[in-house]
Amino acid sequence: MAKARPWSLDTQGLLGNLVAEVNAEVGGGRTSRPASVGEWCLESGLVLDRGKFTFERHEYLEEPYQDEHPCQVEMKSTQMGNTTRAVLRMFYWAMFLDFVGVLYLFPTKGGSGDFASSRIDPLTERNPFLAEQMRSTDSKGMKRFAGCNLIFRGTRSEEGLRSDPCDGVIYDERDLMPDWAPEAARGRLGHSDYKYEHSLSNPTLPDYGIDAQFQLSDQRYWLLKCPKCGGYTCMEDHWAAEPGQPPDCLVEWKGEVVRLCMSCRDAVLHPAQGLWVAKRPDIQDVRGRHYSQLWSQYHTPADILKNYQTTKRMDRFYNYCLGLPYVDAANRLSIEEVLKLCGTAGLASSDGGPCAMGVDQGKGLHVVIGKPRPNRLVHLGEYLEWGELDDVMRLFNVQLCVVDGMPETRSARDFAKRHPGKVFLCWYNDNQKVLATWHEDKLMVVVNRTESMDDSHTAVRDGELLLPRECEPVKDFAQHCHNTAKTLEENEETGGKRYRWVKLGADHYRHGWNYCKLALDRILESFFGGSDLS
Fold first, then answer.
1. pTM for the structure as a whole
2. What architecture does CATH give domain 335-528?
3. Which of 108, 219, 232, 345 sees the fewest Cβ atoms within 10 Å?
4. Per DSSP, what are the bridge partners of residue 369?
């Protein structure tokens, strides 16, 4: 786990600006505006599925329900009340702000329809003051409420995100959405004076999705106050230092498992006695909160500890119980372990070969050149023009080059035609049963993306690659290797599971190495009969 940031309990200014300024009257014929969503829920007598709205046993939600910061991020465990809050914020915006529309996004298309029928319809049926504001529409994915369009969409297709102007977007289960979804949805806010955004999700991988967004926020945590010494404990900071190790904050004490004060270690903490405090109070433009079952009043410390000790899926425990991102060390390379592969030779400007080359397209062309017997990299470089690679092919006696087929397919194909039999465009197909299929007549290689990434990852992890001595390009290579991770995904609709490599940051050299490894293996097979010469 990441090293905890030091805390400051000077909370002056941290809890300010939580309640929006109250307007006496709001235009558009809407009623006078309550000071906050929480005040509206309490004063209206709102009824939820388990009874009348209250903060009892959910004391940690009282401050968030007062908070109308325009950009909010919630990294959460399951069953902490975040979805209910998002829905009620949506109704509040529609009733008391002059929003023309609110876009509520889900990972799947089917989920949007199910959500409307299972969460929205029952809520309005239980609350007549909401039902009287609702008008029917011809679309299952849209409701008309208090003169505002409530639009429910999945994010598997970009088509549904291109129309209908909005003033607010809610991203529900952000980590399961494609990377392009937020940018596409943000386009719907183009003419809005509000541009509210609210993201909530169980985390998956570190530095990805909701965790990446949370890192850009002021990072608020619910700190529990000790009834004895008055000190504050952040339970998440005092979880196990390493997965599988005993936690510090949940311990057996006087015959039962308790939340123990980490200041005096002589008192039991109660989840209701807490305070939201920001680790990054200097950040003002994004409000972030972390929610964990560690301080839920519906999950006992004993149950949490037992689940931790018996889980067969540590990633699920971290994501769903602790509300923390997780990746197995075997599925993500650290920068340090990559740099340990550095030798004493510097980056070469030429080589007699035979060499293999991998080229990844992005903002420029990232080139990785290696040699077999054993596998070692001799050159890393960024180039602006395809024509520059012709000289590189000659200087390094490149016998085989694999090039990313996108986005400049025509330029890549022209480059391949200038070096017939030596340059192949790479296309990924995860349904392919073999790792790679070479089509020499079409100047292309079709590759199972997951298997090829596994193969090139294993070579680095197991020390089967020698790098040049440490320098800036090599440091970039190490960072790009660190910026990919493998995760196990489950399709909620079919139950099918598959592994997928996920981008966590700039990863061009990582893919350049993947293409280079394909070429190296092909050279070994063609030139050396596939024999192990390492």
1. 0.86
2. 2-Layer Sandwich (3.30)
3. 345
4. 357, 379
